[in-house]
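Protein in question kept underneath.
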Amino acid sequence: MTDAPPTRPHPTLDAAVQHKRQALVLPLLFIAVGAIGTALGMLVVLHRPLPNTLAAVVPFTVILLIGVWFLNWLDRWEPEPPRFAIGAFLWGAGVSALISGVVNSLYLGITQDLSATAMYSAPLIEESTKALFLYVVLLSTRRGRAEFNSLTDALVYGGLVGLGFAWIEHIGYALSVETLEESTPIIIGRIVLTSYLHPVLTMIVAVGIWAGVTSRGAGRRLRPFMAWLVAVGLHFLHNGSYELFGPWGIAIAAVAEFVAFVTLIVLGVRSRRAERAEIVRQLPAMVHFGWITPLEAGWLADAPARKRMLGSAGAQRRTLHDFIQNTTELALLRGRLDAMPPGSHPIELLQLHGELADLVAHQRPVVQGILARSNGWHTLEARPGPSWGAPTGDGGP
């Protein structure tokens, strides 16, 4: 039996409650900026009677909550950090919507052409500013990139940015007129035709960005750009449908948007299932290296068991939650490394793999104490696999 090449000393029990370091400054900065922008966008409610405001805010908030519920369900196996999730929503509602509103207003002021503003300015600026969250907040820092590690993540972050933008835009349009009688057809029309248009468009771009992140060569830039073109084109079709095709244009745009909507839902469900399958596939190798035990692997492979374990953790709930998050990220990262050609593994991902393996080992003493109060879980037996340079325990090859 030979040891895997260690990259750092094995962790000691003194660090048993260590938590993964999370990005703090950047997401909090954009939460603050986004909150200010969202507040500015909501100033319109101060100029309308309460019935008008409620008629606009309530239905679109319900639509928002349904969208958030779906994304939360989609993200069940590896939930995103709250700071990033809130930042994504507020980026859409505050930063992207505010910048887009200013640019569109300037374009309209210069051209005096409302149709041109809707067909050309709006798709270009809105899809660009929404996509910037993924680049500025997630992909510009190492910690941000560590949170953007699966297709599901791309769909969730893209969806949250789009939901934020859509929520503030829906309310703004509904309250752009003075009377409830004028607002009602606008509200109904937007509920029927554009409820989830912006989340769909931003998710398309996010999928392209994820495809670029996982590509080599020209695909790293080409795939995000192509996805952005698709989103801009669909947005252009929606805003210009009547101008382009007359009465049939609305139906054509609606069919195209419905196809995109259903495709993204199917893609999301399949990605969620693939995440679970990858986690189950990687856990036995993690047992083999001594990072987790067969019993821990058994309940980590079962979502209801995870929930029950958290419910029994008591004062150690935070540590157990982090342990679950770290083992899940480690399993998904291992799957990503496995899929790469030999010799092409980025140093940053290998370092992250080692850090996550350390964190899991740091937290195991506390987890073992929680497990002592629980029983009845199935076990997953060890199976060899690559260690990717991370330190191993007694089960190491």
About this structure: DSSP finds 14 helices and no strands in the chain. Residues 158 and 207 are 8 Å apart (CA to CA). Residues 276-371 form one domain. Residues 1-17 have pLDDT under 50 and may be disordered.
